[in-house]
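FAQ
Q: What does a multi-component entry look like?
A: The components come first, one per line:
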Amino acid sequence: MFKLTLAAALTSASLAAALPAQAAEPVIGLITKTETNPFFVKMKEGASAEAKAKGAKLLSGAGKTDGDNAGQVAAMENMIAAGAKTILITPSDAKAIIPAIKKAQEKGVMVIALDSPTDPQSATDALFATDNYQAGVLIGQYAKAAMAGKPVKIATLDLFPGHPVGAQRHNGFLQGFGLKSNDAKNNELAHPAEVVCMADSFGDRAKGQTAMENCLQKNPDINLVYTINEPAAAGAFNALQKSGKDKGVMIVSVDGGCDGIKDVAAGKIAATSQQYPLKMAAMGVAAGVDYATTGKKVSGYTDTGVTLIAAKPVDGVESKDTKVGTELCWGKK
Amino acid sequence: MAAIPSTTLGAKLPPLGQLGPFIALLIACVAFGFTTDQFFSGENFSLILQQVTVVGVIAIGQTLIILTAGIDLSCGMIMALGSIVMTKLAADLGLPAPLAILAGIAVTAAFGLINGLLVTRIKLPPFIVTLGTFNIAFAITQLYSGAQTVTEVPPMMTWFGSTFSLGGTNIAYGTVLMILLYLGVWFWLRETGAGRHVYAVGNNPEATRLVGIPPERVLLGVYVLAGVFYGIASLMSVARTGVGDPNAGQTENLDAITAVVLGGTSLFGGRGMILGSLVGAIVVGVLRNGLTLMGVSSVYQVLITGILVIVAVTVDQLSRKGAR
Amino acid sequence: MTATTNAPLVMQAKGLVKRYGQVTALDGADFELRAGEILAVIGDNGAGKSSLIKCLSGATVPDEGQILLDGKTIHFKAPIDARREGIETVYQDLAVAPAMTIAENLFLGREIRREGFLGNVLRMLDKKKMLEQSIARMNDLKVGIRSMTQAVETLSGGQRQCVAVARAAAFASHVVILDEPTAALGVKEGNMVLELIRRVRDKGLPVVLISHNMPHVFEIADRIHVARLGRRGAVLNPKKISMSDTVAVMTGALPPEQLPAECLA
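Then the predicted structure of the entire assembly, as tokens:
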């Protein structure tokens, strides 16, 4: 109950800020999973910048926590009531959000999913996303080439059980490495024999460090670490450094935030798959403005792309260097 | 009420309620010792202690507040704010580390004061107050840090994360500090009038008023003191991760409460052991570590923790009923 | 004449007035408490007995009137002022922390600190001394509780009342005021408390006892102060007047002027 009220209060606050507007200005709503994840913070920044540039009004809101569907539904209803004709949403619950989306579409609102699809994907007018599975595959391929046939003992520092993004990146990594894995639709984490330790990092530095420490206790000769995102990777590096193992262990990650690219340049992370949250959001805003001015809806799946960033390139796997990574990164450069 | 069976069970429980957390810890350690090779080692234990230090220190403040029949949902967020304040003051303003650390602790204590004033002057329930300050502290942290991690951290701030050797095992200074803080607060709660008054206010605030101890004064002191401990936890967090992380502390709010409940302190106030909270924090760390060593999915860690919390609260309830 | 009719006055109130908005709770009430006596204060609801007691214990400040202690005029602004003058009050809800021990409750708010460095700098409590004194005081008053280290919540209602009364007696130097001490107690427990009250009086502390329980009042009171309509209706001698007549005076059915002189005290 309180989550709903808080989410509603949050959206009301941003609506109140948005209200002194001309009737002609396109109103676009952006609903992220949470307010706190830096990925969504950047997404909101990208959307705001694009909205300002195109003369649109951006309303923003989010659920209270990852998985808070009710909060997102409330935000959507409030935004539509405030005149939003396009809703951009990163759905917390791919299935549960569908009825609210249908209701919005019946009112003539265009709904675009960002970053992760609804289930079924066709429930939204369009999907601008990054392929998290592919992101995993790229770093898996890099790691395979970089390890050059050496026997591997892998630790995976995952998000937390049941999260689709966590599963896709994890399974994609294993697939890219050439190990037995699950496909992109599967939410279960694959566990081939080469993976000697799986621990949850919650995408958090301190917990990533704890997870790495515990894995090292279990298996001191881990030589390859997959991490769900760069803060977890930073924590893992800390743990390795404290045990004096940082030189002999390779860390790969996903995200492409500027802090993460710095870590790649510093040699802490070997390779990371860079994703483009600002691009997703900006494309979403542009589509919303288009719809408001021309009435033309956007449709289908647009992959906003993922780029492998590595300091040391390896044969057979295409990657860009950290200079490119820094130019394209999201966050404070 | 079927009083007869529960009073005989309950009458045996007060000592059990106090020993419970230790027994749980013992069972967990023995179980993991048997099922894995790597659990029983000095190095592993030292690691677990380092992993639970931040939550452990936060739990000291949380215990004091829960003893007064209050609760603090903002503790983790205040801790994060403190770590951002101290690291940014050092990085942006070039403030010498000791001053920056004190400034960080001053900020967390100030938040404790705000919590305390809202509870005692405006007479709002602690749950509601700290739910609000939880969001306020988070927002201030994000705004002040620009959602950026502070990576330039003076070496003095990370000193507590460094280790010394004791009989071949590496122990972190932070671990020692945490244990010393627990012992200090344990002494204060047991042996001093002010400490006993914390229990009295939690047990029957009207009684304390009638004997001349204003409960508001005790409560205010407890919230400010808790804020100080959150500030110390901020330093422990910086020492462990080496950075000022604005996204830290998000799960620590509930983790600290879990540690206190597992440690046998009653959510109804007036009863509990501060050392129990340390054991509670360690139990969670042991579960996480042991299950990872066993290769068991972390979902079971969550399940077992949840079961233990229910057991702890049930034991507390039964022992209170049996006492009457 | 009762045993205490000519004993020196310990506490006295003259012409107390207390108004709460339109309601006048005390309308020129007088009061006299003599040394070595148990004075019961009875009265119907709204007769002003709780307002009277609140003025005497410092919980309320009267609008008009005088209160004297040992002949000296005093002004209580808060209960702590009354306590400083040695007047201890036991309230209906007992003011104990149930989870804490008897010894701790006895000394709550008045804890004894250890000597020297341990007490002054570390502020450590002298638990041994407090325990010893608790045992001594309880033995003195012949309260039959075995252990002072058991939690108050493990005691029966009557035992808890005894602890509260003993606490008041331990720290009072002038007057002990008890508000409905035997309410909600069974026969045996009630008698236990009455015994204790007698012993407190015998130790030299006068007791003011508010009660609705006529049998108990008649059992231990030396004199009975009847509050009526915000004033002192009469002071009666329980040895000479019957219980039913007392109730009649209390309700106004029997005007005190009609009583024979020996019924008054």
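Q: Is there any commentary attached?
A: Sometimes. For this entry: The two ends of chain C are 5 Å apart (CA to CA).
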